[in-house]
Write a structure and sequence with these properties.
This protein is mainly α. The protein has helices at about 10-25, 40-50, 65-70.
Length: about 70
């Protein structure tokens, strides 16, 4: 199961935060979750993200931007 199999899509901000946090973990000595020849923590984190193995959860607020629908501003 990879990132393309998930029922939702991460925003570019969520993706950057996940990869950055995971790269920091790897740089601090956390175990690498995939087999790879890469040594740069950011490249390893990107590869882990693409394979969908990073154990980080994103919480989103429901109805966060509802006000745009209620009030016709444009």
């Amino acid at each position: 199961m990879g990132i393309k199999d998930l029922p939702f899509k991460y925003t570019r901000f969520e993706k950057a935060r996940i990869i950055g946090a995971r790269a920091l973990q790897i740089a601090m000595g956390a175990p690498i979750l995939i087999e790879t020849d890469k040594t740069d923590p950011i490249e390893i984190a990107i590869e882990e993200f693409e394979k969908g193995v990073i154990p980080i959860t994103v919480k989103r607020r429901a109805n966060r931007f509802v006000w745009l629908e209620k009030y016709e501003m444009f």
